[in-house]
Write a structure and sequence with these properties.
mainly alpha; 2 domains; two-stranded antiparallel sheet; elongated
Length: 184
């Protein structure tokens, strides 16, 4: 138990250290590219400009790093667990007879074929979630941008009595988030 606790502490420390260093470097690269050659200005003038670049730099970079570290740790853990499981199962497995054919340690091969098949099915089912997640992030960013825009232009909104118009736009953006999330 003590060794496992020590291992968890070391892993968390290394994960956090890697995440901090990677975040610093990625932020440096992204902000440098965004500010280089007046890209921040030219992107606003494009007809199909990327949405909420400031949010993409801040949030998406952090999410990417956290997801990548979690994915790699999960893969390493799965491979190690799988190898441990295979060694134990190999020692316990006997001959598996399928349709009259004898397969030595057949249960091990059956389990791995099942795992591979289940992985492909999970990837097939989960593939549309990538697009949904992207759309959800875009809609959330648009909503946050609209909220910030009201705050930044509060004097104009108040002067022209634009509260109802701003409220309607915010309500429509929020409804789009909910519809996307629940696919209504």
């Amino acid at each position: 138990v003590l060794v496992r606790a020590f291992n968890n502490v070391v892993n968390d420390f290394l994960d956090q250290g890697l995440a901090i260093k990677w975040s610093e470097r990625l932020n440096e690269v992204l902000t440098t590219r965004w500010l280089a050659d007046k890209n921040y200005y030219r992107l606003q003038m494009r007809r199909h400009a990327p949405d909420n670049i400031d949010q993409r730099i801040q949030q998406d970079a952090q999410d990417f790093i956290a997801s990548t570290i979690e994915f790699v740790r999960g893969m390493v853990n799965s491979v190690v667990t799988s190898l441990e499981f295979a060694v134990v199962l190999w020692g316990l497995a006997g001959i598996l007879t399928v349709f009259g054919f004898d397969i030595p340690h057949g249960i091990v091969w059956f389990v791995y074929m099942f795992v591979i098949l289940a992985t492909f099915i999970a990837m097939w089912i989960g593939n549309p979630l990538i697009r949904y997640n992207y759309e959800n992030e875009k809609l959330n960013g648009d909503y946050r941008y609209s909220l910030i825009r009201v705050r930044d232009h509060a004097e104009s909104v108040a002067f022209y009595s634009g509260e109802q118009h701003e409220h309607d736009q915010l309500a429509n953006r929020f409804k789009a988030i909910i519809r996307n999330r629940w696919r209504i």
